[in-house]
Each structure stands twice: as C-alpha cells, then as structure tokens.
Amino acid sequence: MQTLTVVVPAYNESAGLRAFHARLAVVFDALDLACTVLYVDDGSGDDTWAVMQALRAGDARVATLKLSRNFGKELALTAGLDAAEADAVVVIDADLQDPPEVIPQFVAAWREGYDVVYGTRASRAGESGTKKFTSAAFYRVMQRLSQTPVPRDTGDFRLMSRRAADALKQVRERQRFMKGLFAWVGYRQKAIVYQRQARHAGSSKFNYWRLWNFALEGITSFSTVPLRLATYVGLLTAFAAFVFGAFVFGKALLYGDAVRGYPTLLLVMLFLGGVQLIALGLIGEYLGRLYMEAKQRPLYLVDALHPARREPQ
Ligand code: UDP
Ligand code: MG
Questions:
Q1: Which atom, in ligand 1's list, is nearest to the CA of 203?
Q2: From atom 21 of ligand 1, which residue's Cα is the shortest distance away?
Q3: CB of 122 within 8 A of CB of 193?
Q4: Taking CA atoms, which of 110, 200, 226, 252 is between 20 and 30 Å from 33?
Q5: Low-confidence residues in the chain, pLDDT < 70
Q6: d(CA 242, CA 258)
C-alpha cells in the first residue's frame, strides 16, 4: 500500500492540537493509504509536547519530533520533511486554518500524476483588511522581482510526491523562504482552491514585524534586483546632477554669479547621503545573509524523535 505522512509544525498549540488530531483521524480513516502524522514540536513553552505524547499513546499512526528549541516554522517544517519518508508528504498548520478535509483532494490530484498539489485560499476568514492588503502587495512585489513564480494566496499547505520532497531535502540553505522553495522545485504542480478558516484556538505567532521580516526574507533569498536598484538610483542622480550643473553654469554665464544656493547645496548633500545609506543598508542585508550562510551551522537540532508505532507498510 502507498504511504502518506502529514507533517504538522506546532508551536504552543496545546489548546487546539486534540481537536486538530480528531479531524485528521477522520480523514485518515477514509483514505486508502497507510497514513501517519508527524507532529513537530518547535520548542513550545506550553504542554504541546505532552499533548503530542498523549495523542501518540492513543493512536498508532502518530509520530512525534521535538526540536531542541524554537527554530521557527520554516525550520520546524524542514525537520519534519527530513524525517518523513512516505510516498506522499502533506504539510499543514496545526491551528485548523487549513482544513484537513482537503487532503483527499490533494491525494486525488497526486494520483493523477501531479508532484506538488498546493492549497490556494479562496477566502481569508478572520484576517484583518490590513493583513489582506499587505499580503496582496507582497505577492505582487515578489512576482515582479523574482524569477521563480510564487503562486499567490498560497501558504505551506500542500502535498508533495516523494521526488518533490526529496528535491526539497537537497535545498539546505539557511534563508528558508518555503513558499519560494516549494515553487523552485518545479515538476507538475496543481492548485486546489479551499476556504481558509479562522484559527481554531490560540493566537497567530506572526505579528506585523515578523511578517515584514518574512517578506524581506522572501525577497532577498529569491531576488538580487534590489542590489541592482542602487546602481539605477545612482545613475539617475548622476544624470540629474549633470542637468542641474549645466543649468547653473548657463545661468552664471548669462546673469553672473551672486553667492546663493546654500539651501540647494544642503538639500543635494542630504539627499545623496540618504541614497548612499539606503544602498549600503541594502548591501548589508545581502552581506548579513551571506555571513549567516557561510557559517554552515546545522539548520536545526532534534531533541527527541518517536516514530509511529504502526509503521506505514
Ligand atoms: N509555528 C511553528 N513555529 C513558530 C511559529 C509557528 O511551528 O515559531 C507553527 C504554528 O504552530 C502553526 C503554524 O506554524 O501550526 C502557523 O502558525 P500561525 O498560525 O501562528 O501563523 P499564521 O497562520 O497566522 O500565518
Ligand atoms: Mg495560523
């Protein structure tokens, strides 16, 4: 029988994890696959790990993995994907925003021969207008700047075939913008539209500051266009300076040169100073990431791994 593993990263999700597993178990029962779920505890501070152990005790299809500390969702996911060996691997959030009931549709598309089947959100229940707006803006910028087309309104919720998951395993970069990496893998991909639910319990771990950093991560790891931007801004200012110089020169020839223009001088200096600092900051963003990458530290550390008692056959 073919096997399916569902990878669930969870950070302080004890409030909703049981409800999540109950719904997932119903989906598993209806699938004619040997299903297992791998819960990844991303260094939770609450009793998420204890809940996972309880779930594992009550259901032979549950495997649990605990990281040594909180590494962030992207790395928790990576740890889960590294450990999952099934023919198809599904990635889903623990907060029931991605309904497990969509998984059979993913499986059906996978059986049709698709390697990556991802969920695209039709609605974003329970999310503010600002969040909807900023995320739409982000996808637009990404689309413009990067060679890898990142599908819009698509989270991490998806199914990957064995070879797609293996391909992803080979990507060991530290700057892990998963949405981009999933797209980078390529192969035959298919979108399944679903209704994104409001969080079942607990609260989102992503505030705007984190989302901003996430967006920076996405752009810097998939595009070097911002670096080139500095060149263009430089060229533009140089050209403007040339035109302005010609104008000043002509004016001095025609009308003579009284000592004036102190405010313009200051303006130009401040403007150029600002542009230079921005360009430096940009280079710094990339340099910093290069530095982190160059250290070659392991991506995450595992504290404990308990396999499913019923090994998928
Ligand atoms: N998560 C994680 N590590 C973190 C933050 C989040 O494993 O450091 C998990 C979290 O438990 C959830 C998923 O990632 O299962 C999505 O997180 P969240 O719901 O907070 O994000 P949002 O849906 O608001 O984007
Ligand atoms: Mg969520």
A1: 20
A2: 204
A3: yes
A4: 200
A5: 123-127, 200-206, 257, 259, 311-313
A6: 21
pLDDT digits (tens, 9 = 90+) for 52-90: 999 998 888 999 999 999 998 889 999 999 999 899 999
Residue showing tokens 């004036």: 260
Alpha-carbon torsion (252, 258, 264, 266), positive or negative: positive
8 A C-beta contact, residue 149 and residue 183: yes
> Which amino acid is present at 242?
F
Query: Hey, what are 229's tokens?
Result: 């931007």
- C-alpha span between 60 and 308 (Å, rounded): 6
Cβ-based burial of 125 (10 A; exposed 0-12, middle 13-18, buried ≥19): exposed
Residues 6+ apart with CB under 8 A from 7: 37, 38, 40, 77, 80, 81, 84, 89, 90, 91, 92
Q: Pick the atom of ligand 1 nearest to 97's CA.
A: 23
With b for 16 or more beta-carbon neighbours within 10 A and e for fewer, the 2-28 pattern comes to bbbbbbbbbbbbbbbbeebbeebbebb
Are 184 and 143 in contact by the 8 Å Cβ rule? The answer is no
Max CA distance (Å), the chain: 92
- The residue count of the chain comes to 313
Q: Is the CB of 116 under 6 A from ligand 1?
A: no
Q: In terms of DSSP bridges, do strands 154-161 and 116-124 run parallel, antiparallel, or are they unpaired?
A: antiparallel
User: Is the minimum distance from the CB of 93 to ligand 1 under 6 angstroms?
Assistant: yes
Task: Please name the amino acid found at residue 149.
Answer: P
d(CA 303, CA 114): 34
Please check whether residue 214 is in contact with residue 222, taking contact to mean a CB–CB distance below 8 angstroms.
no
End-to-end Cα, the chain, rounded Å: 6
